[in-house]
Amino acid sequence: MLKRCGVTDILALSAIGSLREEMAPGEFVAIDQLIDRTAGRANSFFGPGIVAHVSLADPICPRFSKLAAAAARKAGAKVHTGGCYVAIEGPQFSTRAESALYRQWGADVIGMTAMPEARLAREAELPYALLGMVTDYDSWREEEAGVEAADIIAVMNANAKLARDTLGELAKKLPKKREASPIDTALEFAIITAPDARDPRLAAKLDAVAGRVLNP
C-alpha cells in the first residue's frame, strides 16, 4: 500500500477523452472535479464494522494540482486549468447518447480510472491530483467516427515523452518539506462507529489507512 511506503501525495496521469472542442487531443487538463459513473468497484476501505463518511466536495488537492500543471507547462504541454472528469465503468467507450448527456451535465472530459481511486485517496488522507492527457473527442461529434483504441494508443505514445518530462519537472518543483494539508486529517471526524462497536479485524486491516484515528 502506498501509505505504508511513506507516500504523502498522489498524482494520476490518465488518458482521457474530451467533451469540449477547446480541449484538443494532445493537450493536458488539470482536473478539479469528478462525476462518478462507475459501478461494481470497491469504493471504500470502510464497511460493516467500521463506518466512515469523508468529505469529497473538493476531491482534488488544489495545491498539488497547481504544481503538476506548472510542471506540465514547463515540460512543453498545453494545459487547461480546471475541468470536470466523468468516470465511467468501461471497458467499452461511451455511446453517442451518453457522450452528449455528459456534456449536458457539465463534464469536460471522460475516462475510466479516476474513480474510485480519488475516493480511496481521500479516505487514506492522501492529497490527490489528476493530469489528464486528451487522446480523442469521445463520441459526441456526430460527423466523426466513434472512439477507437488504436487512435488512443497512438496519441498516448506520442505524449509519452511529454508525460515523463512532466514528472521530471514536478520532481524539481517539490519542496524539501511538504506543508501540512487539510486532507491530512480527512478522517478526523469521519468515523461514526463508536469505539466499542468497531470490528477489531477490520480495524487491524485499516491500520495503515486509519491507524491515526483508530489507534490514537
SSE blueprint:
Elements: E1 10-18, E2 28-30, E3 33-37, H1 62-75, E4 79-81, E5 84-88, H2 96-105, E6 109-111, H3 114-123, E7 128-136, H4 149-173, H5 200-205, H6 207-214
Parallel strand pairs: 1-7, 2-4, 3-5, 5-6
Antiparallel strand pairs: 1-6, 2-7
Give structural notes.
The protein has 216 residues and is of the alpha/beta class. It has a single domain, classed as Nucleoside phosphorylase domain (Rossmann fold). Helix content is 34%, strand content 17%. The chain is built from 6 helices and 7 strands, in the order βββαββαβαβααα. β5 (84-88), α2 (96-105) and β6 form a beta-alpha-beta unit. The protein starts with 9 loop residues before the first strand and ends with a helix.
Can you say what the CATH homologous superfamily is?
Nucleoside phosphorylase domain
Using only C-alpha atoms, the radius of gyration works out to: 19 Å
Distance between the termini: 21 Å
Give the overall shape, derived from the CA principal axes.
Answer: globular
- Domain module count: 1
Structural class: alpha/beta
Q: What portion of the residues fall into strands of 2 or more residues?
A: 15-25%
Q: Roughly what percent helix?
A: 25-40%
Strand order across the biggest sheet? 3-5-6-1-7-2-4
- Indicate the CATH class: Alpha Beta
What is the H/E string? EEEHEEHEHEHHH
Query: Which architecture would the CATH scheme give at its second level?
Result: 3-Layer(aba) Sandwich
Q: Please give the count of helices.
A: 6
| Unreliable parts | none
Report the count of strand segments: 7
The CATH topology is given as: Rossmann fold
Task: Compute the average pLDDT.
Answer: 94
Largest sheet: 7 strands, mixed
